[in-house]
Amino acid sequence: MKAFRGAIAALLCALLTGCMPFAAELTSVDGNYHIETAAETVEPAVGDWAADWQTEATLYYPAQNQLALVETRRTLEVGARQTLEERLIEALLDEDVPAGARSAAPEGTALLSVRRSGDAAVVDLSAEAAAVENGQQLFFMRAAIARTLCAACNLDAVDVLINGRAASFSTLPQGALNCDETPAASVFMQLSADEELAASGGDSSAERRAVLYAVTADGRRLEPYARTLTIKNGDCLSALIAALAEDTKDAYLPAPLPAETPLVKDARLVDLPDGRRVARLTLTGSLIPTESEWMTCGALTCTLTSFIPALDGVQIYIGEGQLVRLDSPSGEVTFEDGVLTRAMFETAIGRTVTIYMTAENGSLRALTRAMAAEDVLSPRMTLAELFGEPRTWETGALRVVPDGLSIDDLLGVRIENGEAVLNFSARFYAGCQRLSEQQERNLVYALVNTLTERPDVNAVRFQFEGQAADRLVSSISLISPLMRNPGLIEGAGE
């Protein structure tokens, strides 16, 4: 303890003499300040570790008569290295089927991936899922998956692909399921009626929920998001192209195509000599911005192939020339016959997390960040975003962590039994001593609210060099674990 207090004193001395800069106006602090350790002790968090955890979830299965969904309540063990969405789908594919229900998918079906961004998710099943008996079984398989994810994961739209391709029982896309309370049988009947009207050859109009893809503002990730489309006379391509030029309403996710000057001059579906079906797009000019051509092509390709049934890829023509090669993050890529496929961009599809920084009015502001899918499960990787600076498009957001401190000051994080333990360095503790009461509150609850976005965290406990402290500065007691505080979030009461 004496060594620990000595380290704190040395760091406070450095801070008070101006060796460590702070961006905000900070209060003074007593040079003799020392940590008042809490009586309760908890094993120090060393390194980064998370335990498997349990959750209660409602799973939905197709009824035996394929006219409804059957629900059952299950306790699921979720692995530390898997998302809740992945575990739910695995349970649907592997767990015992309840009475009155049938298997959610054909035998042998496996989960290839689940990509989630905000309130939209895309599930990709293995090719075995295509062995459904008929269109009705296909629909109820997709409906069971969508309803299960929506009920447990606060989702608004779920799309289900088979081996990376859109799955539909008709020429019109099924699209993503909106996951409202409409009975599944009623949705199926409406989809069937839309198909009959489109096949009649007369004027038709059908609404579908689609998952589109956009390039994040930093140009590093593709992110899915949901939109409702109106498909007139079966023309899916025109509806998708128009939707890609609409504002997404999210600053981190600009529209993939420019709205002012239509970029796509012509769009049509073409059958190639080898039997593949592609969407052939003719552009009026080069993709904008040119430094993210690869990602913009990815947004177009993933959007079209994920929605239009039996579509193998996309060909892009610029004027009279065909696009046959592109510079990707890993080097130049040449594609056979100029056909871009979803598989080329699978690793670019990210997943979003929510972090909290300070808003101009002094409250906490929720910010959406896109990360590599494999990094989302790491609490350290998520908190590293919080320790950084606001992005250029995050106007009005202020850094919540004092200058001079970094994610390296997090010595360890442990997640177990719904509780996250954060173990910070003595340097972090000392670096916070000049925070005002409001700055202290925002920092503490930025950390707490960010971590409790995870489904396996309900509360957060703080340590410094492995020891508990009564307070970080002056106003917030750290003796007990802290729960989420939604009241501090900007616009929470609106």
Task: Please tag this protein with its features.
5-stranded mixed beta sheet, 9 helices, globular, alpha+beta, 23% helix, 494 residues, single chain, disordered N terminus
Write the layout of secondary structure elements.
Elements: H1 2-16, E1 47-50, E2 53-62, E3 69-78, H2 84-94, E4 111-117, E5 120-125, H3 135-153, E6 157-162, E7 165-166, H4 184-199, E8 205-215, E9 222-232, H5 236-244, E10 264-271, E11 277-283, H6 293-307, E12 313-318, E13 321-322, E14 325-328, E15 331-334, E16 339-340, E17 350-359, E18 364-372, H7 379-387, E19 397-398, E20 410-416, E21 419-424, H8 426-431, H9 437-451, E22 459-464, E23 482-483
Parallel strand pairs: 1-20, 5-6, 11-12, 21-22
Antiparallel strand pairs: 2-3, 4-5, 6-7, 8-9, 10-11, 12-13, 12-16, 14-15, 17-18, 17-19, 20-21, 22-23
Helix pairs in contact: 2-3, 5-6, 7-9
